[in-house]
Amino acid sequence: MEILFPFASNEEKDMMVATIGSFWNANETWLVLAIGLLLVAYSIIGACWLILKTEYTLQAKAVDWAQGRIWGLALVLGAVSLAKPLVSPGVFDKWFTYPEIVLQTPMPLLSAVLVWMPWRSLQRLPNTTGKGARAPFCYAISLFILAFGGLAYSFYLYVVPEN
Question: Which among 8, 14, 42, 147 has most CB atoms closer than 10 A?
């Protein structure tokens, strides 16, 4: 809606914001986190793909790019994981009630392992044989399947949180 602001008077802008009010405030958090996640996610997946498909100088650059983004990815995934139960009482209840809490305890540990494994595999690259070039891509994809599976579980049956 903000794209229309240049065409509206100040009074109209206030009215426009009032029409979306609290709905937008709650979802603005998700929008910012989702955009951050996508920017970091796609850049690391792209870098890992380049590691797999290229050689020499470009592969070395791709390794550097992936190494620089893995911790940003961990930070964004951690922020989303912390924000979900704090912003959404439904997610909080779903995560922290018995028996779900027992079933979900391995998820943060598995996520940490899936951040550590590509980081560790990137330490061994680039090399002259190309050995291990597939690993960072496979680990990154596994991490995203886990992360988006967690989002799907958290909000299943409701596509829009809290509706």
Answer: 147
- Six-digit token string for 9: 């008077």
Torsion angle in degrees (nearest 10) through CA of 155, 158, 159, 163? -120
Maximum Cα–Cα distance across the chain: 65
Its pTM stands at 0.71
Eight-state DSSP code of residue 2? G
Q: Which of 51, 151, 138, 148 is nearest to 91 (CA)?
A: 151
Distance (Å, whole) CA 46 – CA 88: 32
Q: Which token pair is 1?
A: 């809606």
Q: Are 71 and 44 contacting, i.e. CB atoms less than 8 angstroms apart?
A: no
The closest alpha carbon to 110, from 76, 150, 143, 70, belongs to: 143
Minimal CA–CA distance to 143: which of 45, 29, 31, 30?
45
Whose CA is closest to 117, among 135, 144, 141? Answer: 135
